[in-house]
Amino acid sequence: MKTLFTFLSLSFFVMSNSQKLTSYVNPFVGTKNMGHTFPGATAPFGMVQLSPETNQVPYAIDGKYNPETYRYCSGYQYDDKTIFGFAHTHFSGVGHSDLGDFLMMPTVGKLTLEPGTAELPKSGYHSQFTKNTEKASPGFYEVVLDDYGIKAELTASERVGFHRYTFPKSTESHIILDLMSNIYNYDSKNVWTFVRVEDNQTVTGYRETTGWARTKKVFFAMKFSKPFKKYGRKRYEKVEYNGFYRKFNEDENFPEFAGRQIRCYFDFDTTENEQILVKFALSNTSTSGAMKNLEAEIPHWDFEKTKKETEAKWEKELSKIEVETLTENDKTTFYTALYHTMMSPILYQDVDGIYLDIDQNIHNAKDFTNYTVFSLWDTYRALHPLYNIIQPKRNNDFIKSMLSHARHSVHKALPIWSHYANENWCMIGYHAVSVLADAVAKNTTDADLKAMLNASVTSSNLKYYDGIGDYLKYGYVPEDKSSSSVSKTLEYAYDDWCIAQLAKKSGDKNLENEYLKRSENYRNLYNPQSGFMHPKLSDGTFKKDFDPMDTHGQGFIEGNAFNYGLYVPQNIPEMIKMMGGKNKFSKHLDEIFTTEIAEKYIEKNEDITRDGIIGNYVHGNEPGHHIPYLYNFTNDPWKTQERVRMIMRKMYSHGEDGLCGNDDAGQMSAWYVFSAMGFYPVLPGSDEYQLGSPLLISAKINLENGKTLKIRTENQSEKNVYVSKILVNGKEIKNQTLKHSDIANGGEIVFIMSGKR
């Protein structure tokens, strides 16, 4: 029996490992509650994210912010039963939103151009659907629209969305193109829309919106697989002047549509189970650019070919890390997390290399590929450091894209949070400098060091940005002059340290010393009486009525003094010493994990939800992601191992609710990928990682330099969460620290696990 069991187990292992890695990705992870991911079709880092919208929620009602809109940052909620159509642009896992461009919806029967409301079935063109017809895999999405008996299938190349709709027999088959629909929508969001019907199968145009991206223009080219028999549009805004276009009936079969609020339609006769395919290409430069993108990427009508090609692209990217896990569900959790780390930044140039930049002019990317969507307050922490291991060439392009932004910015500053040739100024800090410093420390960029340093220094001295002028004047950001003052001071001090590293690399000792001194500004806000980083006023006194548990109005953003107050990654030993030493600090960390935070402290912060909280530790938000690893700097490194393993089990899963908060453009997932492998970049900008407790049985990282790093565990189990010994290429590691060279040079890391600490 033992021999038979061994044989069956081995057979399962071989079959399991021969499966495509894409089969372990569940695109629905994070689509329930507040993960804000989307399940639709996209290529790795692709410009197109073709995904369903399951509701249309206005940003404001009666002039007041509508909290319900926050649930729809990606346009999709797993528990919804309606689909309003399929839009071509989406963010993955963000805590604010935009996009949702070019919503397409196939319908049958009497033409209705009003979307209706989800609460009233058949009140508009939206449709009911049932979950058992909905499928998603990397690069593919499928669902049946029950109200119309239409099967919708979606795939995508990098710049082109590809639709396949299977219709019933009808003389009233329609494809609606809703050019009014947006995510975070409001009446004035659409600035202008222009559409041309080039022939009876080809349509081009653009839409300009204003929102999180203040001036966002997206061009498109659309081709149908069969001619439409007629077409038309409806314009919804009040038209005060239409010039001599009043000569025409613009609503039916007129080949130009222009206006602020437009929906249009294309009509067909269909036979039973007839398929109509639509190719929809995007460009940030022109309709001719969109047409070039369409012709270059999908010149054919073979839907399955594009689907397979995009699946192969995902397989290639996922195979950069090959893992063996304790359970099959763990493998799904891991590869879905890895998948989510490659949803953004997104490609932002045409096939010929031209792109729109922050100056709203067209440029040519001659020596790099241009990207956009940089959620840097989130992603500098772990996502970009992960790229320096598995995507160094692409991360180098990200850096050059940031430098292009700085070059063409009127502020001459690096991006803060940027998308679609716009700076939206979201969150705090100027963390592109961290991305630059991390790549320099790990030798993964060939970008001009002087240009990086100059752009970083300019960003750090932009006095009119978010309290920097006061930071330079006082050595801290005063709370009476700028909100979230402690968070800003701590983040600025860390960014200053990153600039010091760039200066050191360039050989500029004076600049290095200047920024090292600035990096110590965290000291100015530590209050030994309260024992916390404490908001200080411009008169030099600490704020009275200070509550370190409160996440609102106490000097912190999306965190409190207990957790965000520990953000001094550039000098953790000194922070611990300042806060009473290793033993006291370890107890403080314990208190974070074991003290329940009352509802009153988080009720004013929509980014902090119960899903992501353990005690007072908020894993659902980024400022505390390094906290479990801080035990490594005390006398209790075993607590890092215990906490990290616990967080992986409590905060992540393979199900639809498998993210404990916004994925934040991949940062949440990157934390899991790192932690599951057993190490984490607590200090981006250095060449060091802190060791934890790997969840995997083994991992093989296939590096771009052709080398391989093997990570192996001995005695791995659910109970054996502690690490008794770590060997790097046979040599024991004593200080809980891994060097980047240990990874980049390949070799083997062995974690010997134990149930005893």
Summary keywords:
single chain, alpha+beta, six-stranded mixed β-sheet, globular, disordered N terminus
Report what the structure shows.
- The chain has about 750 residues and is α+β, with helices and mostly antiparallel strands.
- The protein is built from 17 helices and 40 strands.
- It has a 9-stranded antiparallel sheet. A 6-stranded mixed sheet has the order 21-35-36-40-37-38. Strands 7-13-19-17 form a 4-stranded antiparallel sheet, with no helix packed on it.
- The chain is globular.
Write the layout of secondary structure elements.
Layout: H1 2-18, E1 41-42, E2 49-53, E3 60-61, E4 64-65, E5 82-83, E6 85-87, E7 103-108, E8 127-128, E9 135-137, E10 140-145, E11 150-156, E12 160-167, E13 170-178, E14 190-199, E15 202-209, E16 216-224, E17 230-235, E18 256-259, E19 262-270, E20 274-283, H2 287-297, H3 303-318, E21 321-324, H4 328-340, E22 346-347, E23 354-356, E24 362-364, E25 371-372, E26 374-375, H5 376-379, H6 383-390, H7 392-408, E27 417-419, E28 422-423, H8 432-441, H9 449-460, H10 468-474, H11 485-506, H12 509-518, E29 526-527, E30 532-533, H13 572-578, H14 582-594, E31 613-614, E32 617-618, H15 637-651, H16 667-677, E33 679-680, E34 688-691, E35 698-702, E36 708-714, E37 722-728, E38 731-732, E39 737-739, H17 740-744, E40 747-754
Parallel strand pairs: 36-40
Antiparallel strand pairs: 1-2, 2-6, 3-4, 5-8, 7-13, 9-10, 10-11, 11-12, 12-20, 13-19, 14-15, 14-18, 15-16, 16-20, 17-19, 21-35, 22-25, 23-24, 26-27, 27-28, 29-30, 31-32, 33-34, 34-39, 35-36, 37-38, 37-40
